[in-house]
Amino acid sequence: MNVYPLIKPLLFRFDAEHAHHLALQSLKKSHQLHLLSPLIGSIPSLPTHFCGLELPNPVGLAAGLDKDGKYIDALSALGFGFLELGTVTPLAQPGNPLPRMFRLTDSMGIINRMGFNNDGVDACVARVKASAFYQNGGVIGLNIGKNAITPIENASSDYVTCLQKVYSVASYVTINISSPNTKNLRQLQGGQDLVELLKMVEQTREQLSQQYGKRTPLFLKIAPDLDDDSIEGISEAILEHQMDALIATNTTLSRNGVENEPFKDEAGGLSGLPVKTLSTQTLQKFSHHLNGKIPLIGVGGIMNGDDALQKIHAGAKLVQLYSGLIYQGPQLVKDCIASLKDHL
């Protein structure tokens, strides 16, 4: 039973960030009352192997929806094959001033400038350990970033700190250098800045793999706003420094396709349907450059099962959802799995 069309108009009466928290809190309460399973129904099985991880299906939650790991068990009940939490930073931080999230309803888009608001990496790790999903072997990725107060030239130290703290619990770790909402962060996507960062996390991973007796995969998440030279340079760097996968893409600074929306001029990254084409094109270009040497995860503008399939055809092995859940509801997870199962 899909009740989201009945709930959505009520949620959309609230501002976007208030509705976000209200929806997640309601989801958590419904899960605690054992109401989710009857509403969601059975989830199609589509076992997928990815970077040494065994997933029940290739449809995951993108970072940003559950920044602090407060809703792990409720979100896992929606049928995701894996969850990515964060972005977390070494220290807790409030993020950017309110308001900082805006719906572009006619375009099915969202602009956000959250700014890595989170309770800090230690709090998130504690919540992961306490979750039933983690204790039962669920696949959880931790997305890590730098604090706003950390100068960009010292960013590597924040990533190293986070990697050290999440390593023992994370199924994989995503290096987020593509958010447009932390000053100068996207500078890390190119040139010597990228090389130095990847070198540092690669060396730290080698030390931690010996300490913990396991090699946790490292993923890199990139922006869709990259020219061809940048895509080529990033591809070479991630191969040289042994990244295990690439996530394409984060939000865009472009406003193409939303010119008539009332919130189009708000600062921040644009996600949802308006980023789908650009994100998929970026995914295709990385797929061409990497030529199967490392796997890709497609995210950006997935609103139905056909969109998920399009990402797979563009070169992705897994997909992730976020903004589509806001507009389509939890049924989107099941729809995407079913579509991939039918066509793959």
Description:
This protein is α/β, with parallel strands linked by helices. It has one domain (4-343): Aldolase class I (TIM Barrel), CATH 3.20.20. The protein has helices at 4-11, 16-32, 36-40, 72-76, 121-130, 132-135, 155-166, 191-212, 228-240, 276-290, 305-313, 323-328, 331-343, and strands spanning 48-50, 53-55, 59-61, 82-88, 101-104, 109-112, 140-144, 172-176, 218-222, 245-248, 269-272, 296-299, 318-321. Strands 3-4-7-8-9-10-12-13 form an eight-stranded parallel barrel, surrounded by five helices. Strands 5-6-11 form a three-stranded antiparallel β-sheet, with no helix packed on it. β7, α7 and β8 (172-176) form a beta-alpha-beta unit. α7 (155-166) packs parallel to α8 and α9 packs across α10. The model has no long low-confidence stretch (mean pLDDT 97).
Classified in CATH, the superfamily is: Aldolase class I
User: What oligomerization state is this entry in?
Assistant: single chain
Strand content: 15-25%
Number-wise, the strands total 13
CATH architecture assignment name? Alpha-Beta Barrel
The helix-strand sequence is: HHHEEEHEEEHHEHEHEHEEHEHEHH
Q: How many helix segments? A: 13
The biggest beta sheet reads:
8 strands, parallel, barrel
Distance from first to last alpha carbon: 26 Å
Q: Give the % helix.
A: 40-55%
- CATH C-level: Alpha Beta
Which outline best applies? globular
**How many domain regions?**
1
Question: Which structural class is indicated by helix and strand composition?
Answer: alpha/beta
Radius of gyration over C-alpha positions, nearest whole angstrom = 19 Å
Say what the CATH topology is. TIM Barrel
Low-confidence stretches: none
Q: What topology, given as strand order, has the largest sheet?
A: 3-4-7-8-9-10-12-13
The residue-averaged pLDDT reads: 97
